[in-house]
Every structure is written in C-alpha cells, then in structure tokens.
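Minutes, project check-in
Item: structure for the 362-residue chain
Input as provided by the requester:
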Amino acid sequence: MLVVVEADGGSRGNPGPAGYGAVVWDADRAQVLAERKQALGIATNNVAEYRGLIAGLEAAAELGAREVEVRMDSKLVVEQMSGRWQVKHEAMIPLADRARRLVAGFDRVRFQWIPRKENSYADRLANEAMDDAKVIDEVREAEPVTAPATTAPGWTGALGRPTRLLLLRHGQTELSVQRRYSGRGNPPLTALGREQAARAAKYLAAKGDIAAVVTSPLDRARETAEAVAQAADIPVRVLNGLIETDFGDWEGLTFPEAAQRDPALHARWLGDPSLPAPHGESFDQVRERVESVRRDLVGLYPDQNVLVVSHVTPIKTLLQLALGVGPSLLYRLHLDLASLSIAEFYPDGGSSVRLVNETSYL
C-alpha cells in the first residue's frame, strides 16, 4: 500500500513553545487516513520538524503501508533524510537516526520538498500543537518551582524540565542465579529477589514524588514493580514494550552453552545489534520498541518522575538513548539485580544520565 505523509513542526521563539503535526493520506491524497499532533514544550524548529516526520512515519507503519511519499516544507529535513546533507547538530542526530530506522521498515520511501502553502494541513496541526505548548508553558511558569531543575547537568545545554525515568531492574530469579539467558521465559522471583524488591520499594517510597509506575509484563518485573507501587500507593501500568529481549533458541542456556550451540553466530551476535538469536529478536528491534515507550512516557509525564521496572537490555537501551552513544554500551555496561539507574529526557530533545547501577539500599 502506498501512502502520502505530510509533516510539519514549529517553534515560537526557536527555541520556544513547540509542536508538530503530521497527516497520512491515501495514494491519491483524497482521504485522510491518520493525523498526529503533539505539543513538545520548549524546543527548536528543527527538533519539531523531525518529530513531525517521525510521527508521520510511525502512523504510516501502523496502517501497514509499504511505500511512502514524504512531503515536507523543511529543506533541512528533506535533504538530510535524502542523504545529500550531513546531520551535524547533536540534538538532531538521535532524531535522524530514529527516522532512518523507521524508513528502513518500508519497501520504499521518497522524500520531496514542497512549498509551505502546499503543506497547509500539517501546518495547521503543528500550529494547534504550538498553541497547546504555549498554554502548557504559561501554566508551568505560574506554578511553584517544585519540579526538577530547568537545565540539564553538565554541558548538554538542554532546556526545560525533564521527564526523569527511574530505571529499576527486577530482583533475582533462579535463571539469574545460574547466569542463563533469561528473556521471554517467566521465572518468578526467588526469596532473595522478593527481599531485593522490598528493599528497593522502601528506598524509592521514601524518596517520594513518583508520578507513575510502569513495568514489563513478565512476572519477575511485575512482582518487583508491585512491591514499589504498594509502598508508594501508586497503581502499576504494564507496558509490553518494556519486555526483555527474545533470546529465541538460546533461552535458558548459559553463555558457554549458547556459544557451543551456535559458535559463529554467537560470536557475531556479541558485536552486531542487528543480528537476532536463532528464532529470537535483535537488539536493534529492542531499541525500536523501547524508544517508542520512551517517547510515550515523555509525552504522558512531562516534568515528572516515572519508575520503569524492566530488564537488562531495555534499561541499557534507555541509558544508551540518553547518552546518545552506540551499541557498544549494551555489551560493556554491567547492571546488578534490583539496581537503580536514572535517565532524563528533556522537551527540546536533550537528555542526560544522572545515576547508573545504584545498589546501596540492598
């Protein structure tokens, strides 16, 4: 199926209150198949333009489109996505990377620059989103300053108040004791695992200011999340995108056993995130669904703290996204059971990592 995606984004102040709009038409541009718009808080024009493109491509993918004609009045985005211009600005690199991964999921995508007057539908949606962004910004300015700091730590230069993701790994299971690949299998927590969850719950509940608790659907994560949710008196929301990697035929095997079963593939898999385990899932595929969860959480909980209870790979992936680094982090970073890490994502596209592998409460 061929569809036409038109997208636009803007910022009143650059950076300023920003938003994007995207519309998906049928091949004849006679019928609207989907619309997307969202206020982004404080962001630049270019960030908003890219977010509009990403939203349009995601909507096209949800409709089952195989070929996409992208029409935008942003010369920068069209030229960069067509490969004729380099992406040099740091804030644009993760957005362009996300857009390219979406493009790779279609059979064919063609980018076309159009004058602004021909992009009026998406422009209207973007302006409606910017109106919302301005109202939200004014409300925030009138509120007492009790939210996180307005600038990112260090030298990132990110603006606005971040969504802070508290990344908690689940407690111990029998498979983790035996150091076996544990993906979609569903072992419960051990007695020690339940104690780890209880200690993490006590620590986090004492900190307070958690707006939501979200978890992987697997029992080991849900048990851990429910301990925290009960202590903090917050309901648990299950997000399937936070599930652990599907290790396929390696599920339940130790590292040496998997290496012996598929020596060549296992060796390549350790350095190539595009390769899945036999009948399993690649780390690139994990990143795509985790990025979707991250984007939803940032949109749903601006300026707030969200507890995310998950597994090694999704947590490492969120840290990778926050740091803007390559896949080597997945293979080199160690995360203990029931450990806490913290990643922050700002409305202008900036991000930072505040904490990795905290276990003092255990």
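Outcome recorded: The CA atoms of residues 256 and 263 lie 9 Å apart.
No further action items on this chain.
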